[in-house]
Amino acid sequence: MTNTFNYKNLELNVQVYTRQESYGHSEFFQNFSTSGDGAVFNSLDLDYWTPNNPNGAYPIPDYGGTGWTYEDLSFVRVGNIGLGYQFPQELADKLKMSRLKMSLDIQNPFTFTDYKGPDPETALQNSYNMTYAVKTVLLGLKLAF
Predict the structure, then answer these.
(1) Is 35 exposed, middle or buried (0-12, 13-18, 19+ CB in 10 A)?
(2) Which of 53, 73, 91, 122 would staple 22 via disulfide (CB 3.0–4.6 Å)?
(3) pLDDT tens string for the chain (145 positions)?
(4) Calpha distance 38→42 (Å, rounded)
(5) Cα four-point dihedral sign 42, 44, 45, 49
């Protein structure tokens, strides 16, 4: 969903997208949790099932076995927030330009999710070569002569 709002010389646009009711095997949890043989890969502190914790939220870890962790990968992400200002034509004329506009864009500023890993959008990919959505700030200046 994309919305654009204009007020005088200001323009604001917001892009939001979502994925709901999506469940999958979490490569992140599988690769970064304590394994059944005692090996540790930057072990996560999760509420695992154990004989002493029968109400744990996650199955007992089992590296290389069947103890896969399935997660709710639903999310709502604000993909972009853009703010632009069109300078008055009088200023552009004084600078011998036909147009002068400044803009600020913030990509991926917010993600709303219950997923405990780094990025629910890429959670189904192999964690070893995974890239995550990064926050990016772009400043722009549009000059037309």
Answers:
(1) middle
(2) 73
(3) 999 999 999 999 999 999 998 877 766 666 655 545 555 444 556 677 777 888 877 666 554 445 556 678 899 999 999 999 999 999 999 999 999 999 999 999 999 998 877 788 877 766 555 567 789 999 999 999 8
(4) 12
(5) negative
Chain centroid offset of residue 126 CA: 17
What is the C-alpha separation between 8 and 25, in angstroms, rounded? Answer: 49
Q: Give the N- to C-terminal CA distance of the chain in Å, as an integer.
A: 34
What does the alpha-carbon distance between residue 46 and residue 33 come to, in Å, rounded to a whole number? Answer: 9
Answer yes or no: pTM beyond 0.90.
no
Integer Cα distance of 94 and 35 in angstroms: 69
